[in-house]
Amino acid sequence: MSTLKETLRKKIEEHRPRIAQLTKEHGDVKLGEVTIAQAIGGARGVKCLVTDISYLDPMEGIRFRGKTIPETFEALPKVPGSDYPYVEGFWYMLLTGDVPTMEQTLEVVEDFKKRRQVPEYVFDLLRTLPRDTHPMTMFSAAIVAMQRESVFARNYAEGNFNKMTCWEEMYEDSCNLLAKLPVIAAYIYRMKYKGDTPIGSDANLDFGGDFAQMMGQEKPYDDVARMYFILHSDHESGNVSAHTTHLVASALSDAYYSLSAGINGLAGPLHGLANQEVLSWTQHFMEKLGGEVPTKEKLKEAIWDTLNSGQVVPGYGHAVLRKTDPRYTSQREFCLKTPGLKDYPLFKLVSMIFEVAPDILQEHGKAKNPWPNVDAQSGVIQWYYGVTEYDFYTVLFGVGRAIGVLANITWDRALGYPIERPKSITTDMMEAAAGIK
Ligand code: CMX
Q1: 235, 243, 246, 318: which is the annotated catalytic residue?
Q2: Known catalytic membership, residue 271
Q3: How far does CA 214 lie from the centroid of its chain?
Q4: How far apart are CA 366 and CA 299, in angstroms?
Q5: Which residue out of 210, 235, 271, 325 is catalytically annotated?
Q6: What's the CATH code, domain 274-384?
Q7: 318: annotated active-site residue
Q8: Could you report the per-residue pLDDT of 146-197, keeping only the tens digit for each?
Q9: What are the tens digits of pLDDT across the range 329-383?
Q10: Residues 376, 281: contact at Cβ < 8 Å?
Q11: Could you state, in order of their start, the residue ranges of all structural domains in the chain?
Q12: Minimal-distance CA residue to ligand 1 atom 23
């Protein structure tokens, strides 16, 4: 058994009694109360999901296994000659909570290489779809098409379900699936946008490096990919993609069904698709000005026009965060330290939006958080490196998001979390509770 799986087994065995004790001895302890506004308003702030993989503080932002973004990048083993860590080492850390050594990381790198081969029928399926199909639809379809490969589903169908060991099948499915995602994503990209010229996987490269070369990109796009996938991986459990993946998995659906469902949620414009929206919004705006960076006055006008026409400013606001998203900051720092990007007109525009949009959103008075989120900054980096097909951006988000949600559903199985089933009530009941009727 691999070091990762063995370490994970040990962690799971240590963790199970904690959940058993909380459930059996302290199950009545209240974590909060649910108001009518929360029931109507998308369950904001209702504490009813559990995960140890990441935690999102409204002011500080995300911590992965207790580590901030800079701490995560600092702690994990780096790819030789690169500034960013192996995605495989990050997967090890999300699953176990331990920072792996270089040796442990490289073991995962080698393991993932063996799992990379995508079944031929997946490419056949992708090729049958009309080429103008949205890449997120293609991505989700490719994932769910591979459901027949599920170790968990096969084992279950053969009557071998065992609640104590079924995490192992979820782990195997998750590793098999995750290792294939860069191949599928890059295939979609090259098929759809680059004249149908897919580039095969290179067995010498890690997750991020192989993705970059399959995209047809030179260095430092490999580091861009590693940074991007890690930053987008996890944002605790309540966001649409993470929650959907968890919810579907709770019905004992396998990793393929669950991730495909989560990816469909990520495809919504209020969630992952916002990174595409940011680029389309900024590009249209720059086109109108003949490619020029606008003056602040012109920019303010454009933001007000967007708001007055009833649309949201994409890349701004957040359901939990109340400060600038550190994932935004991390990408901004990448731009500032990369020669060429720092003075790139689109980056200048994105920076100018950062200067003016928060005040306007505050004056507008609706958004609880006027600060930028991850999506406000990610597209500009892709654009700079020539990935200008912005409807592909959410697929990149999806590859990253898979790391977090697959780690989560592996733990869901390990801790035996039950099928999710919150209770609904009627409007009459709320009115009665409010004393209106
Ligand atoms: N521009 C204009 N209005 C905004 C806004 C924005 N960026 N952000 C929030 N608002 C509005 C909401 O639409 C809502 O209006 P109504 O009362 O008319 O419905 C009001 O402000 C209150 O919303 P909120 O409580 O501040 O925000 P929510 O938790 O409901 O929604 C989010 C959060 C992210 C969906 C919202 O801020 C938004 O639509 N942002 C733009 C899209 C975006 O960037 N999404 C990506 C988020 C990160 C990710 O998941 O990838």
Answers
A1: 318
A2: yes
A3: 21
A4: 20
A5: 271
A6: 1.10.230.10
A7: yes
A8: 999 999 999 999 999 999 999 999 999 999 999 999 999 999 999 999 999 9
A9: 999 999 999 999 999 999 999 999 999 999 999 999 999 999 999 999 999 999 9
A10: no
A11: 274-384
A12: 367
